[in-house]
# Entry
Amino acid sequence: MIRNPIDIASRTSPELSILIESIVNQLDSDEPVTLATVRSFIEHELPAELSEDEHLHHFDTFESLIDELDALIEGFGESAAAIDFVSIYASEPLSRAIEIIVSDENRENPPTLATIRDALASGLSARLIGDGVLEEDEADMLMPEIEELIDRFGDEALAEEFLRYE
# Structure
């Protein structure tokens, strides 16, 4: 399987990204899931699930996702790792925490995921709860979420790249 060194997830629509991530999680295979595997899954196993997923309920949307997937296969090959095409963003609560750190004008370097983890461990969550920016249950999920991002992308990944703007 070929790993792609460029940010190819940015070339995937949010809808296809969600579908690919769902299929990768559903397959839970020891082998890396490729674009060909995703295409095969859609062809042979997904139709029964279409009615359960509001995003794919309309035939036109489903067809355009298949066309988009086919274009990715044509451009990157069948053996490309499907997970590389999944866009990853921080949750809204974590995005709020990241924005606080990013907007700190006293910072010399852009904050990394490790910077955010360190700030959370040093009391940022409690401060955001006290300021009314976060609810307690939201704050409880920040550390596991940042750890998951670090596990996947490394300590030095720029935190700003994971901001979710809604």
Confidence is low (pLDDT under 50) at residues 1-5, 49-55. The chain has seven helices and no strands. Residues 59-76 form the longest helix (18 residues).
